[in-house]
Amino acid sequence: MSPTSKLHRHAPDWLILSIACVAQFMVVLDVSVVNVALPHMGHDLKLSQTQAQWIINAYVLTFAGFLLLGGRAADLFGRRKIYLLGVGVFTLASVAAGFAATGPQMIAARAIQGIGGAILSPATLTIIVTTFHGPRLPKAIGAWSAVAGAGGAVGGLAGGLLTGWANWRWVFFINVPFGIAAAVAAGLYLREKRNRDATVKLDVTGAVLVTAGLTALIYGVVNTTTSSWTSQSTLSWLFAAAATLIGFIFWEARVASHPLVPFRIFHSRPLSVANIVMLLAGGAFFAMWYFLTYYFQNILGYGAVKAGFSFLPMAIGIIVGAQLSSRLLVKVGVRPLLLVGAALATLGFLWLSRITPTSTYLRDLLAPAFLCSFAMGLLFAPLATAATSKVDRADAGLASGILNTARQVGGSLSLAVLGTVSYDRFSQFLRASGQHPTGAVVKLAYVSGYTRAFEVSAAVTLAAFLVSLALPSKVGHHSSHGTKADPAASAAASAH
């Protein structure tokens, strides 16, 4: 404990827990709150549907790329200092996003917001772990997990209400009062604590390389909506992505004294399988919300508020699936739950691929969308358990962090690939229809693109099912290695 800790007032445990939970709620909420507002943002900022993806990707990419770095920063420099830094960056970036007048301004603000979230989110868990001990710790992490899960679940609804009743800019401005309250409370009541024995250096180079490489890769994929795969611009971006990601691997394996991602941890087969499944299934689910947002508002003609409420059953599906999975885990084990979850997700996406411009929410959309969401909820607990079951206790936090990173990276890659697939199908449909398509034909072209994306999503979740078969049949759900990390990973991963 630092000498300055005596300057801060004594705070009850509930207040410290609230300081951690409010910040985590903001971070997770901002992954999903923009979904319903996205069509309105794109219209006002003059972004096409494909370009509007970057409002999501800019946040998710920097969040994923700097997440592990943020976790180490809290240990090295102290939980209070890093918490305040994260809150400050996140809140100021939220203000900048709310006032953005152009697409590039919005995307830049969202990228900075993602860095703030990557700094802040691990600090909130560090606050809990260093404050609560013994039997109080699991309860505190459970509350943190529930709040984080709620943030992801209510994001669509909150985005719809704020956009419909006020303006899409309020999906960012709403962070300001929460950020100020969290910063003031932390400044007054949060005592500084850090690991004085920590000697690990921050691998900033690794974080920059992986973020830059993934950004170039996604930009190259999205670029194919305007240029061919063999065009100079596309090939240049893909080459830059490959060179940067190879540089990242070389840096982590051979140069970095304290690598961001120690590749030795992937010697655990359950961890490797869990990350691949999360990358695939989590990414497909992430993209589902994007396409349904546009389908609800541009095809069915829903307003923002109605679209937000339309996502509520899906949020409930995630919660129900996660609760059922956590209870069944001890009885049936990890692999059966992964197989069932991936199989149900595949069925759900195939069902969604049957929608038409005349489909209705209750008859054609509610059941398959709920099934996909329920399936994703089923996967949370077994994936977290698999990722941490065969690693050293000291690496449990790292394993959970890597799983969450795989979820975010999968979301960005999936959105880029499926968005490109959807746009290609849309363009082909319009070209086949003639030079001057009617509004009804344009709608049909859009839906054709969405259904193609859902078909590919079904193939992706089927691949996740096949990868799950590689998991050892006796992955230790009884293992204590990941006890503290599992709820954290599950909560963080619930951000859709």
Radius of gyration: 22 Å
The total number of structural domains is 3
Residue share in β-strands: under 5%
Low-confidence stretches: 1-7, 477-496
**First CA to last CA: what distance?**
37 Å
Q: Give a count of the beta strands, DSSP E runs of length 2 or more.
A: 0
CATH architecture of the largest domain: Up-down Bundle
User: Describe the biggest sheet?
Assistant: none
- What is the name of the CATH topology of the largest domain? Growth Hormone, Chain: A
Following the backbone from N to C, one meets helices and strands in this order, namely: HHHHHHHHHHHHHHHHHH
Q: Which descriptor suits the 3D outline?
A: globular
CATH class of the largest domain: Mainly Alpha
The mean pLDDT is: 86
Alpha-beta classification: mainly alpha
Give the count of helical stretches. 18
Relative helix content: over 70%
Name of the CATH superfamily of the largest domain? MFS general substrate transporter like domains
